[in-house]
Amino acid sequence: MKKKSGGGEGGANWMDTYGDMVTLLLCFFVLLYSMSTIDEEKWKQVAMSFNPNALSTPTDPGLGTSSGPFQEENENNPGVADPSDLLEQAMKEKEKEQQTIDSNIEKLYQQMKEYLDQRDLGKNVEITKGDGGIYLSFADAVFFAGDSYFLLNEGQELLRGIAPMLTEAKDSIDEIRIMGHTAQAYDHPNIVEDDRMLASERAAQVTAFLQENCQVDPARLVSQGYGQHRPVAENDDVNRWKNRRVEMVITGKDLMDKLGDALEQYTTLREDGPGKTSDVYATPEPAEGSSSSEGTDGNQSSSSSSAASGGDNSGSPAESSGEGQEG
Q1: Mean pLDDT across the chain, nearest whole number?
Q2: How distant, in Å, are the alpha carbons of 24, 144, 157 from that of 154?
Q3: What are phi and psi of 248, to 5 degrees?
Q4: pLDDT digit string (tens) for 117-145?
């Protein structure tokens, strides 16, 4: 009996036709792509979907062509710029913006200096400017009576005149830091709690007044109390008054700082800062039967304020005579 044929060797010939079709489709789409133009916005969206930190700076008309990225110059279609050129362009724009900030801070310094000179406050106020910003030092007599943290009318008037200048420069200001200082009254150190509270309350009073009277972001207003521990002169009868002071440091934004401005640095420190130990520093849960801490801030503040002001806010002998915690 004759055997049936096994189907021959041409069973896979259909693959030749299929391969030719796929090749033709590929050539067709390549041809379509070569005639197309790249939508810059869609290109950015695609790039940023892979890398959220990708530059989104507008391209320069001389940095690409309708044929795609990194081609020769074509004024009719910007195409897509080389990332290195984008980075260089972004740096130039940042340098230009930094020059504007520096100019605004210099203008603020000149305005404040002229204003203080007109008031003829003499040795009670110092103002200087350096690379770190604008530095002002106010003798305590400008703002406060002895051993008191209540702002005098003269001090309020002075700050009220400075506030509009700060508002004008608000977009260029990185931080305004208010620092309170006291003087050692006697041969022995001041009472620690009273000393610290007085310095902190004075700084807080000046900070709060500025916040209420200027439009600088409150997050950029910082108050600190150092007590007697950063003197600028001897604590003798002649020079002690120099140590009783309130200082103000106004710094401009530094766009070249890789760490960012004051707020960005704070956020970085808080979120990624040195060795987060949330378990170690976690707020302990109150023990059973303990009273809640809510609603106690007002009482604490009241008692602390009394201590800082010599124990009497309504005109104690220490306030009127200037004798007491600071001598």
Answers
A1: 75
A2: 87, 9, 5
A3: -130, 125
A4: 988 877 788 999 988 799 999 988 888 88
Q: Are 326 and 318 in contact (CB under 8 A)?
A: no
Any domain includes 86: no
Q: Residue 121 class from Cβ within 10 Å (0-12 exposed, 13-18 middle, 19+ buried)?
A: middle
Task: Judge whether 10 lies within some domain.
Answer: no
Compute the distance between CA of residue 25 and CA of residue 280 in angstroms, rounded to an integer.
63
Taking the C-alpha atoms of residue 86 and residue 91, their distance in angstroms, rounded to an integer, is 9
Residue where the block lists tokens 């500025």: 210
Q: Is the pLDDT of residue 114 over 90?
A: yes
Nearest residue to 190 (alpha-carbon basis) of 182, 200, 179: 182
pLDDT digits (tens, 9 = 90+) for 183-225: 887 777 888 898 899 999 999 999 999 999 999 999 999 999 9
Residue 194, classified by CB atoms within 10 Å of its CB into exposed (0-12), middle (13-18) or buried (19+), is: buried
Quote the number of domains for the chain: 1
How far is residue 197 from each of residues 93, 146, 154, 203, measured CA to CA in Å? 45, 14, 23, 10
CA distance linking residue 206 with residue 322, whole number of Å: 20
Residue 35 burial (C-beta neighbours within 10 Å; 0-12, 13-18, 19+): exposed
Instruction: State the burial class of residue 214 (Cβ atoms within 10 Å of its Cβ: 0-12, 13-18, 19+).
Output: buried
Q: CATH number, domain at 229?
A: 3.30.1330.60
Count Cβ atoms below 10 Å from residue 135 Cβ, excluding itself: 16
Question: Could you report the per-residue pLDDT of 83-103, keeping only the tens digit for each?
Answer: 677 778 888 888 999 999 999
Facing residues of 136 across strands?
127, 248
126 - beta bridge partners?
A: 137
Domain that holds residue 228: 98-273+306-321
Give the separation between CA 145 and CA 198, rounded to whole angstroms.
12
Q: What is the largest CA-CA distance in the chain?
A: 136
